Hints:
The protein is of the alpha+beta class.
Amino acid sequence: MRHNALYTILFSGAVCVACAVLVSSAAVSLKENQLRNAALDKQRNVLFAAGLAQTGEDLDASEVQRRFEGIRSVVIDLRTGERTDIDPTGFDQAKAAKDPATSREAPQNRASVRRLPDHALVYEIMDGDEPSTAVVPIEGYGLWSTLYGFLAVGQDGNTIEGITYYQHGETPGLGGEVDNPNWKSLWPGRKIYGAAGEPAIRVIKGTAGSPADAPHEVDGLTGATITSNGVTSMLDFWLGDSGFKTYLRQFQEGQAL
Ligand SMILES: Cc1cc2nc3c(=O)[nH]c(=O)nc-3n(C[C@H](O)[C@H](O)[C@H](O)COP(=O)(O)O)c2cc1C
């Protein structure tokens, strides 16, 4: 059977509209699921950083929930380091960093962080009534992408307990080795701050040695010096005066109770 040109155009148009409606309604209906999964993945990574879960462990939502029972989510004021009574449930740090009313321009930094939120969401691992570990968010540019992760810091506000990245676009096998459990296992026990109280922890080119021998150094990622330097830069920024240094000092003094 032969059709004229108008019929062909109308038919193709109808197919396009039907497909567009199908794809966009799928995207809208899945959006909530995606957001929930992203939030769950972040929570899993808080657990990984704090050593409350091992990489590779299959943690479903209820297990994450169970392990989060001993964790306090707190919104702190980045300018003073003090805890606030802002409800952490609805707090979106990335959104706060974009809104001029709740953020300011970041000082010049090598991590390419442009805006600093006034507030930040941190996680305190409780040992009874006392927080024993603080997990703080970190982010900064590597080679291709912004890396987003968490750093866990011990009660002294100085000893690293773990690091994880939950989102980045670095090359698998090169910068993507930030996800390698062997590399992450090099971090616990290293110290953040130098003698003058400045962030001194850095990823070097080559091999660093044990935390006792090289408390402020971590092995570089082979063939990925740019990503390695990105990790150093983001720690330098987020653990410094504009970042979590004031909060960690109060955490160490027990004031963050
Ligand atoms: C396709 C491709 C992907 C790369 N991906 C990364 C990367 O993710 N991170 C990184 O630091 N370097 C990456 N590099 C290498 C950098 O260009 C650069 O050579 C390297 O960071 C230098 O590190 P090195 O001195 O340890 O070799 C990539 C190179 C190529 C060709």
